[in-house]
Amino acid sequence: MTELNTRRMRHVPDEELHPYLDQALSRSQCVEIETHLAQCAHCRDRRDTIAALRDRTTALLGQLTPRNLIIPPPFEQLAERLSRRPVTPLWQIRLKRAGLWAAGVMAAVGTGWIGRSILDPHRDQPLAAQNETAPLASAVELGSAAAPTTATPVTVVPTDAAETPLPLPETTPRFSPSTSRSQGFRLSNASNRTRIIPAPMLQLASALTPMPEASRDVAPSARLEGSAPFGPLWQQVQWEDALEKAGSGLPYIEGMLVIGVLLRPGEGGERPTSLVAQQDPSGELVLSIEGPLAKVMEIVKSQGAPEIHASEWTRTPPDYVPSASGATRRINRVLTVTGRLSTDSLNALARLATIR
Amino acid sequence: MEDLERLYKTHYAAVVRFLYRKIWDADRAEDLAQEVFIRAMAHQPDKPRAWIFAVAANLARDEARAAIRRRKHLVLLKDDPVPLSTPELSAEESVEHDERWAQVTGALAALTERDREVLLLWDAGLSYPEIAAQTGLAVGAVGTTLARARKRLTEAYDRTEYQADAARS
Fold it and tell me: Which DSSP string do the residues of B148-169 spell out, in sequence order?
């Protein structure tokens, strides 16, 4: 009886099995399909096949994701960007559109007039003579006589031209799901585990310049003292002050002693560039530098000593600053860890770095 | 605003992915995703989820036009998107990953624009009625379109994989 019913029943078409598996059908439709599936082996096979197809599609599309870890900037930052935008009254928008439309019409008319004047063999004849032979054409020309003077070429500059991201070198590491587990910019309570000492008036410049061999045995904190400041723009700050001033970007490596913090104020709405000096268990000084790409590059280049290496760069949340044209410009920021350790060790440390 | 903030936290990554699969520029996709949410804050739409993806699709379309003007990112298979290797992948794994990536983008490019749009919206988590509202399809036609798109995507992918295997051997 059941087999007979099954044979007589129409099979569930694939186009219904897809929404059934996507849970896009009503309860009654689902019950109807499930009742049929319970009796029909053919449709059960089709359901399994389509379920596999659906899963495979998801898996294929899953490969098309950016390698960078997607980190949403704070919602408040978006609200702030919205508040910075000038509010344009509706009538101004309409007026601007009408102006553009009029300019387009004028440009088209002007182009036509110029083309016509080039192609028209009688263009050098006196107007009166033209009127006699082609009164309609002359009327058009008279009506558009002012067009060429006003139909200046309209140059449309893409508003996002200023937002073109800064090029990153090919060595820039990209996030991947596997790295995100270990090096995500999570806010953690790691400060409990990190020994942070109030930074005295240390001068970190020596960490950025070649050290003579003889000074290798000196404790890092002692090395920092007595050398010239890195630059007049840099401020040496206490950890707590640095956290406040750095906004959302003070890098440090968990579990290492913080020796000192230097901040360089951002320009034009950028967040500051920060440099956190820490001491690794072997006594070596390690610097975590986070800031706009150009500035970090500048600092890394300024080190110049062969024994000082830098880790690969890691992208950090970018800055969005207003440009002169009123559009928002994106400033890419990166984090790197430098020191007298091997590049591999520094890369490993960079993965442990957290943005506090 | 709280609803929008919650939506931002839960859907930001989906919007970035949706945009990325249309413009193939991860940085730009993030910029546009933020622009979408800023606009949502200004407009306070009634159905924010559907609205956000509709605006994202429009921005992606504008971006594609702008890209053509700039003669950049002209076709799906061109451009930088991923080829930078992650440090965790070996050279061989990296090559395989890039090949696979190119095959999937090629398969996606083989779909019609409507099939691709419906598939990407479904993958972004939109419901059938939301997809229908955005694409102008009847709700009943969404299932049919999805069925066709899934089938064509996998077929196109298998075809490119077969060709790649044949080229290697």
Answer: HHHHHHHHHHHHHHHHHHHHH-
Q: Under an 8 A CB cutoff, do A61 and B123 touch?
A: yes
Distances (CA, A) of A137 to A141, A217, A339: 6, 94, 80
Nearest beta carbon to residue A73 from set B34, B66, B70 = B34
Please check whether residues A142 and A277 belong to one and the same domain.
no
Nearest to B147 among A14, A67, A78 (CB): A14
Residue A101 pLDDT > 80: yes
CB < 8 Å to B119, chain A: 57, 61
Q: Chain B: nearest CA to A204, how far in angstroms?
A: 30
Domain boundary among A150, A172, A200: A150
Distance between first and last Cα of chain B: 58
Of B86, B108, B151, the CB nearest to A173: B86
Band (A90; pLDDT cuts 50, 70, 90): low
A230 and A315 within one domain: yes
Structure token pair of residue A306 = 């062969």
CB contact under 8 A, A67 and B86: yes
Q: Determine the pLDDT at residue B117.
A: 93
* B38/A81 touch (CB, cutoff 8 Å), yes or no: yes
Residue A85 located in a structural domain: no
To the nearest whole number, what is the mean pLDDT of chain A? 69
Positions of chain B with pLDDT lower than 50, given as ranges: 72-87
Q: Does residue A69 lie in a domain region? A: no
Return the DSSP state at A308: -
Dihedral sign, CA of B21, B27, B28, B32? positive
Tell me the pLDDT tens digit for each residue of A189-247. Answer: 333 344 444 333 334 444 444 444 434 444 444 444 434 346 667 777 777 777 777 76
- Any idea of the CA torsion for A225, A226, A231, A233, to the nearest 10 degrees? 60
What residue numbers bound the domain in which A333 lies? 162-355
Q: What is the pTM of this model?
A: 0.49
Sign of the alpha-carbon torsion through B16, B21, B22, B27? positive
Q: Domains for chain B: give ranges and CATH numbers.
A: 1-81 (1.10.1740), 83-169 (1.10.10.10)
Q: Which residues of B touch A22 (CB under 8 A)?
A: 122, 128, 143, 146
Residue A72 lies in a domain: no
Residue B153: which of A22, A60, A85 has the nearest Cβ? A60
Tally of domains in chain A:
3
